[in-house]
Design goal:
The protein contains 6 helices and 13 strands. The protein is of the alpha+beta class. The chain has a 5-stranded mixed sheet, sandwiched between helices. Strand 11 and strand 12 form a beta hairpin. The protein is elongated, with a radius of gyration of 22 Å.
Length: 257
C-alpha cells in the first residue's frame, strides 16, 4: 500500500471512531479549527482539548496529582467563579490541586513538510511548546502545546491549606490564562487560514508558469500581491515572547507506534 493510501486509511479509521473523551465531543472553542484541519486531505486531528480549569483530588506523587488515579472535583472550559471552587473543595479528602491546562491538539500529517507548516503556524500563534514526532511506521504527528499552564496545591489530606482570598486570587490568574488561551486559538485559526490560502496561491502560480513555458505565445498574467499580511503583529509577537519560552524550533521526537 502506498503512503497516500495508507494515510487515507488511517484518517478514515480515526474520524469514524467514537469520541472517548470525558465530554464525548469536541470543545466549542476548537470546533472550527478541528473542522478546518479535517477538511484538508493532508491532516486529521486525533485528540483535542480547548483548555480547562480543573480541581483534582488525589495523592501527590512526585509533586503532581496523577489524573488517572484521582477524583475530578471540578472541570470547566469557561471562567470559574470562587463559589463553585469552594463548593468543590469541600468534597476533597486527599490533596486537592487547582490546575489550568491550555490547548492541547494532536494532528497527524501526511508529509513532514505539512507538519512543519503547521508547527510554524503554532509557534507564531503563541503555542511555543509545540513539537513533531515521527513514528516507526511513518506516522507524522504534530502536538500543539503552550507553556502558560498553572498548577497549585490547595489542600492536604482534606484540609484546606490556603485562604478563600488566595483562592479568589488564583482564579483571577486562571481565568486570565483561559482568556489568553482563547485568543491564541483564534490567532492559530486565522494564521492557519492565511497559510493555507498562501499555499493555494503559490500552487496556482506554479501551474501558470508551467503553462506559460509550454506555450511561448501566452500572455503573462499579473502577479497577485505577495504580501497577504502577517497573521501576527509586532505587538503580539513581543507579548508572546514575554509569555512563553522563545526560540523553540522544530524538534523531531522518535515515537513508538
Amino acid at each position: 500500500m502506498d503512503r497516500s493510501a495508507e494515510f487515507r486509511r488511517w484518517k478514515a479509521q480515526c474520524l469514524s471512531k467514537a469520541d472517548l473523551s470525558r465530554k464525548g465531543s469536541v470543545d466549542e472553542d476548537v470546533v472550527e479549527l478541528v473542522q478546518l484541519l479535517n477538511e484538508r486531505e493532508r491532516f486529521f486531528t486525533t485528540s483535542s482539548c480547548a483548555g480547562r480549569i480543573l480541581l483534582l483530588d488525589g495523592s501527590i506523587n512526585g509533586f503532581e496529582v496523577q489524573k488517572k488515579d484521582c477524583c475530578w472535583l471540578l472541570v470547566t472550559h469557561r471562567p470559574c467563579v470562587k463559589d463553585d471552587m469552594i463548593a468543590a473543595l469541600k468534597k476533597a479528602h486527599g490533596d486537592a490541586i487547582l490546575k489550568f491546562e491550555p490547548l492541547v491538539l494532536h494532528v497527524q500529517c501526511q508529509q513532514l513538510q505539512d507538519a512543519q507548516m503547521l508547527h510554524s503556524v503554532a509557534i507564531d500563534s503563541g503555542f511555543r511548546n509545540s513539537g513533531i514526532t515521527v513514528g516507526k511506521r511513518g506516522k507524522i504527528m504534530l502536538a500543539v502545546r503552550s507553556t502558560h499552564g498553572l498548577e497549585v496545591p490547595l489542600s492536604h489530606e482534606g484540609k484546606l491549606m490556603v485562604t478563600e482570598e488566595y483562592i479568589d486570587f488564583l482564579l483571577k490568574i486562571a481565568n486570565q490564562k483561559m482568556e489568553e488561551n482563547k485568543k491564541r486559538i483564534e490567532r492559530f485559526y486565522n494564521c492557519l487560514q492565511h497559510a493555507l490560502e498562501r499555499e493555494t496561491v503559490t500552487n496556482s502560480h506554479s501551474k501558470e508558469k508551467i503553462n506559460e513555458k509550454s506555450n511561448p505565445y501566452s500572455h503573462k498574467k499579473k502577479r497577485n500581491q505577495e504580501n497577504h499580511g502577517k497573521c501576527i503583529t509586532e505587538e503580539n509577537d513581543k507579548k508572546l515572547e514575554n509569555d512563553d519560552d522563545p526560540g523553540i524550533g522544530i524538534t523531531l521526537f522518535p515515537e513508538d507506534d
